[in-house]
Design a protein that fits this description.
Blueprint (H helix, E strand, L loop, with lengths): L3 H31 L5 H9 L4 H10 L6 H13 L13 H36 L4 H15 L2 H15 L15 H37 L3 H8 L4 H39 L4 H10 L3 H29 L8
């Protein structure tokens, strides 16, 4: 494990390297969204059913939508330099307030799904590698292939029909909030189960296949044969030597999948009416609230960059041969 000073220097270096990346993300996101037809005022006018040209012009002037694209971009950059994401025309409140009220729900959902996927993925992959070619391996491989092929929204709808409509044991959507203290926590967990399972199933399949392949590859290495020659049992060799080294590619892939999980949360949160960033992004797209969408994309990019740095540190902890920054 690298010393703390080296970790701190590495994190600072990565933050500096991320500045050009973030600058490119800001520019591309802004101008790509500006290519979309219409704006938030058009969507608001459609919701109201009727709006005069004067009213729409006044609303555009209020939110600066009547200015040129370059002027709007300059205002957006000024807001970012003041750590502001602007105002949402649709909700008429700061974008940071909207995102701050939703990001916790999304992070809880994503982390729950990631933990569930990593735990079951490692367990299933290790079991398949230990029983390679036997019925346990073939049976798990069959189910994993099914999970790998099924889309998020179909799984979500199927779980709603089964557990909410037919069995009536789990809520079909929302986030709970009934009661206080422990009762409120348990109620929230009930609402979290179906979205977490839906979001994690695909990644369980991915991680199971990855761990199985990695463990089979590591099993043929010289140090594994040496461990057997020292008299270690198969269980000790698998858990202390094979699995530990097989987790190296898993940490890399799971970090790369963080952005994919965030994208999958858009679908899952919409299906289950989960009040997170994914649902907010969907509403922003439908309402052409591009300020909110720009804020979500920027925050998502920051989360992905931070996750990549964390993955590098974890890899250095798992394998002392890795030197950060090299």
């Amino acid at each position: 494990m690298p010393d703390r000073g080296r970790i701190a220097r590495y994190i600072i270096l990565r933050l500096l390297q991320a500045v050009p990346t973030l600058a490119g993300i800001v520019v591309l996101n802004f101008f790509i969204l500006k290519l979309a037809p219409g704006d938030a005022v058009d969507a608001l006018a459609a919701d109201m059913g009727a709006a005069t040209a004067e009213t729409m012009a006044a609303m555009r002037a209020r939110f600066g939508l009547d200015q040129t694209v370059l002027h709007q971009f300059w205002v957006y950059l000024q807001n970012l330099m003041h750590l502001s994401l602007g105002i949402s025309p649709r909700y008429d409140i700061p974008v940071s307030t909207l995102i701050g009220g939703r990001i916790t729900a999304t992070l809880v959902l994503m982390l729950s799904a990631l933990i569930w996927a990593l735990g079951l993925g490692v367990l299933c992959g290790a079991l398949m590698a230990a029983r390679v070619g036997r019925w346990q391996d073939r049976l798990l491989w069959f189910f994993i292939q099914i999970l790998y092929s099924v889309p998020f929204f179909w799984v979500g709808l199927l779980l709603i029909v089964l557990f909410s409509v037919k069995l009536n044991i789990l809520p079909s959507g929302g986030i709970g909030g009934e009661g206080t203290g422990l009762l409120a926590l348990l109620d929230d967990l009930r609402y979290l189960i179906l979205p977490t399972v839906t979001l994690s199933l695909f990644y369980i399949a991915v991680y199971s296949r990855l761990v199985r392949s990695a463990m089979l590859e590591v099993s043929g290495q010289d140090y594994v044969r040496t461990a057997y020659a020292k008299g270690l049992s198969q269980r000790e060799v698998y858990w202390r030597h094979v699995l530990r080294n097989a987790l190296m590619p898993l940490t890399t892939i799971s970090g790369m999948h963080f952005g994919g999980i965030l994208g999958g949360a858009v679908v899952v949160e919409t299906v289950f009416n989960w009040p997170g960033l994914g649902r907010l992004a969907y509403d922003a797209i439908m309402g052409r609230d591009y300020n909110v969408l720009l804020g979500i994309l920027l925050i998502s990019s920051l989360l992905v960059l931070a996750t990549n740095v964390l993955v590098d540190v974890i890899q250095a902890w798992l394998d002392p041969r890795i030197e950060l920054g090299r």
